[in-house]
């Protein structure tokens, strides 16, 4: 399959996905070879797996901010050694969903490492909704052969846009999630009660969940240990799998009194499956515009490092940064920068449950980072034009067109700027291009 962005890509399926007496067959559009079979076997917890797949597909069809008609975007599926991962973004790109089918959830063999789009159509959604009891559920991800428009059988061809927003979202989510830490764990009964108390889909307020005994207490203000919950109705996709879960775990970055809204991850664990939803800091904000990856992409060597690291990635379920650094002959910081660069092509994700990166098989384009991030391209142009004039170690002047901006270093090492972007966002959407240009010039993080 050829991955494309900002264009309509034609995906060919051998047949529609469906559910028969022998199990579920999820038809994929391709991978390392034409329609490979990543996995063939049984899911050990059929009703829970069906609920999880429905949740990921539902997120892909939903716009939580300014809802419109359902989108038609196929979730991404990755097979890696001992697990399958199904991922999607909402139509507004403000919710990232992932279902991990873990080793305990699979009774079969993953015979190839690959990433592809999976067809979750209306008949399959209706069939999955009927899965119940202990009836066996067989999953075949990808047929053996690719046959298109033959006389002996029909071929389903779908024109599905693969938005560049999804690739930018993949890049931003993994950088944000890498800073998350476990904040709370609720047993099943308390998790169900907590989710029932949440406001409905129309509520777009930013709340904060504070651990309180075995549950969480909602408040309107941040405090140390709290987790941001922006647009609580966006957690609705968890409810279908809630009855199978043993725990609800919540992850987020460290916050303090007065902190701005931040992203968070809410994860249901059944033991065999993990379903997680990562929410953007505010309902109207999509992950594709967060700018979290910009600082890591600003280094002079990051593109070359990414090429080297890309060649060393294997199909292990998680990426060991220290081992990768040793193999590449780089320090861990440069490896993380390289992973951020690879993330711009969707090749790297981050699993908050295991606090580790993981690998997707997608083409890597060295120029994508700057094409998808105008601030990065603008910063590179300013630095190359000599527009940055350093004033000691703590300040710089940046000339941008007819405007002159002052960039200053804070005691914590971050940079501030006098430009309108900084005045509006105060660093919450990543650094401005002037701060990035300064960081490129002095080769320190922005």
TrEMBL record:
GO terms for molecular function: zinc ion binding. Gene3D superfamilies: Winged helix-like DNA-binding domain superfamily/Winged helix DNA-binding domain (1.10.10.10). Keywords: Metal-binding, Zinc, Zinc-finger. It holds the Pfam family SWIM. Residues 405-443 form the SWIM-type domain. The keyword Metal-binding applies. This is SWIM-type domain-containing protein. It comes from Dactylosporangium sucinum.
């Amino acid at each position: 399959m050829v991955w494309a962005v900002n264009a309509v890509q034609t995906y060919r399926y051998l047949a529609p996905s469906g559910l028969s007496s022998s199990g579920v067959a999820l038809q994929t559009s391709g991978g390392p070879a034409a329609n490979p079979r990543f996995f063939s076997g049984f899911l050990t917890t059929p009703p829970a797996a069906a609920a999880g797949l429905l949740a990921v597909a539902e997120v892909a069809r939903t716009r939580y901010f300014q809802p419109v008609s359902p989108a038609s975007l196929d979730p991404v599926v990755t097979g890696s050694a001992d697990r399958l991962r199904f991922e999607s973004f909402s139509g507004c790109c403000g919710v990232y969903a992932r279902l991990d089918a873990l080793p305990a959830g699979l009774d079969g063999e993953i015979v190839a490492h690959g990433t592809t789009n999976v067809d979750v159509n209306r008949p399959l959604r209706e069939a999955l909704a009927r899965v119940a009891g202990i009836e066996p559920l067989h999953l075949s991800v990808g047929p053996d052969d690719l046959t298109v428009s033959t006389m002996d059988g029909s071929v389903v061809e779908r024109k599905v846009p693969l938005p560049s927003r999804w690739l930018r979202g993949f890049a931003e989510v993994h950088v944000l999630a890498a800073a998350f830490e476990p904040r709370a764990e609720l047993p099943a009964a308390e998790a169900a009660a907590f989710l029932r108390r949440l406001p409905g889909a129309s509520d777009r307020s930013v709340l904060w969940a504070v651990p309180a005994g075995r549950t969480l207490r909602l408040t309107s203000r941040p405090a140390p240990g709290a987790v941001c919950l922006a647009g609580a109705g966006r957690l609705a996709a968890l409810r279908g799998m809630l009855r199978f879960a043993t725990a609800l775990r919540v992850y987020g970055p460290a916050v303090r009194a007065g902190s701005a809204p931040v992203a968070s991850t809410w994860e249901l664990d059944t033991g065999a499956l993990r379903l997680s939803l990562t929410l953007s800091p505010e309902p109207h904000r999509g992950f594709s515009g967060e700018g979290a990856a910009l600082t890591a992409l600003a280094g002079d060597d990051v593109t070359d490092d990414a090429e080297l690291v890309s060649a060393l990635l294997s199909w292990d379920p998680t990426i060991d940064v220290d081992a990768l650094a040793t193999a590449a002959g780089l320090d861990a910081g440069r490896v993380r920068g390289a992973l951020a660069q690879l993330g711009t092509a969707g090749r790297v994700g981050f699993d908050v449950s295991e606090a580790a990166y993981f690998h997707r098989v997608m083409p890597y384009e060295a120029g994508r980072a700057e094409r998808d991030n105008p601030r990065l391209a603008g910063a590179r142009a300013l630095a190359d034009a000599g527009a940055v004039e350093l004033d000691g170690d703590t300040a710089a002047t940046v000339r941008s067109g007819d405007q002159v901006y002052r960039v200053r270093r804070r005691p914590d090492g971050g940079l501030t700027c006098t430009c309108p972007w900084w005045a509006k966002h105060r660093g919450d959407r990543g650094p401005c291009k002037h701060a990035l240009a300064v960081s490129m010039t002095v080769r320190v993080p922005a």
